[in-house]
Amino acid sequence: DLLLVKQGVVDVIWSSSTRQREEEFTPVKFNLLRGINEYRALLIRAGDQSRFDKVNSIDDLRQFKIGSGIHWSDTQIYHFNGLPIVTSYAFDTMFRMLAARRFDYMARSLQEIDQEIEQYGKLGLTVEKNLLIHYPQPIYFFLNKKNAALAKRIERGLLMAQADGSLDEIFMSIPSFRSAEEKIRHINRKIIELHSDD
């Protein structure tokens, strides 16, 4: 939790980057997830695929409501891009809200969505077939402002691990990360670009 970093209780946390976070904390500007979280598939109700077949642009997507967590940094991006949005405090509840038609879709990262279908597919949810949303959202380590020296050491360690290949090895040993990277390499979907206000 970023508050614990601010209070000095926790030294390091990884989180999506926002302009505000980079001002309040010391970021280690090394994208830990290599951008796999920046491509989002749509989680929809199984019967709604034909409605999404007509989506070719961000304007088309604005005809639908997206569900998002009230404190997620993604939520700011959806607002900035004018997507109609319904927010929730509780993560698990959102899948039931989608099934109950409170909104039309959720945008889920490629490393998350397969497991979520396993867990929540029984609610009548599925992955939309034609689209991906893309927006910049690097994942950095963040430290307390007083910990600039530790931030430098972490950055040096990450660069060394990248150079000797051990970081790649760790990354590819995580099945959901490996699968997401593979999907990105072979994208055959329409990509709708969103912009951040950073």
Structure explained in plain terms:
- This protein has 198 residues and is an alpha+beta fold.
- It is 40% helix and 22% strand.
- The chain has ten helices and ten strands.
- The protein has helices spanning 2-7, 19-24, 49-52, 58-61, 73-80, 91-99, 113-120, 148-163, 166-172, 175-185, and strands at 12-16, 26-28, 39-45, 66-69, 85-88, 105-109, 125-127, 131-134, 139-143, 190-193.
- Strands 3, 6, 7, 8 and 10 form a five-stranded mixed sheet that branches.
- The longest helix is centred in the last third of the chain and has 16 residues, at 148-163.
- The mean pLDDT is 93.
The tally of beta strands, per DSSP, is 10
- Share of β-strand residues: 15-25%
Mean pLDDT: 93
Major sheet: 5 strands, mixed
Helix content: 25-40%
Sequence stretches where pLDDT stays below 50 over 5 or more residues: none
Structural class by sheet pairing and helices: alpha+beta
